[in-house]
Amino acid sequence: MNEVSVLGIAFDEANDVAAVILSREGAKNVVPIPIDINEGITVIRLLQKRKMPRPMTHDLMFNIIGDLHHKVQKVEIDLADDQYVASVLMSGGLEGKPEDKTISLEARPFDAIAIAIKSEAPMFMSEKAYDKNSVPLVMESKEKDDDFKDFVQNLKASDFNRIERQTAEPEEEPEGDPDDEPEE
Predict the structure, then answer these.
(1) Are 24 and 7 in contact (CB under 8 A)?
(2) CA distances (Å), 104 to each of 46, 90, 150, in order?
(3) Which of 75, 84, 116, 183 has the smallest C-beta neighbourhood within 10 Å, fewest atoms?
(4) Domain 2-136 has what CATH class?
(5) Each residue of 150-163: b (16+ CB within 10 Å) or e?
(6) Domain boundaries, the chain
(7) pTM of the model
(8) How many other C-beta atoms can be found within 10 angstroms of the C-beta atom of residue 58?
């Protein structure tokens, strides 16, 4: 298992689907896990630490885990029959009587990811799942990126004045055709 994190959310509104994008640190490939659009919005809210007026399902799960004096240790994501499966691993026990026992709860990948984000627990994905379902992360070429950085770093306030003057409307021309010669 390798540690992964949420790189972002991709939305396809035309088909009413989304994907949570998981990545290993420094990887050139990412793994999109299909979720519905509402779940995508939920992940964004979790990443932004925005509170909802009423508890969501992952809030309820997180509160139950805490009230039972357990702590989420990690989330694991794997493949079984070409389907993503996930487990939430927790440990703990009654207050004053800590247990070394780890409990593993099967969960949908979205629910496990939401719990991991909410509890700030690490997420892991099996090598098999990562390799089988990863796609290249498309990025701008380094050359274009460096050119843009150079442009921005060398930009001066006077450059904006020059741009403004170039786009300003030309002064009005005197009436008449410039090719016409004045009559004597």
Answers:
(1) no
(2) 23, 6, 51
(3) 183
(4) alpha beta
(5) eeeeeeeeeeeeee
(6) 2-136
(7) 0.68
(8) 22
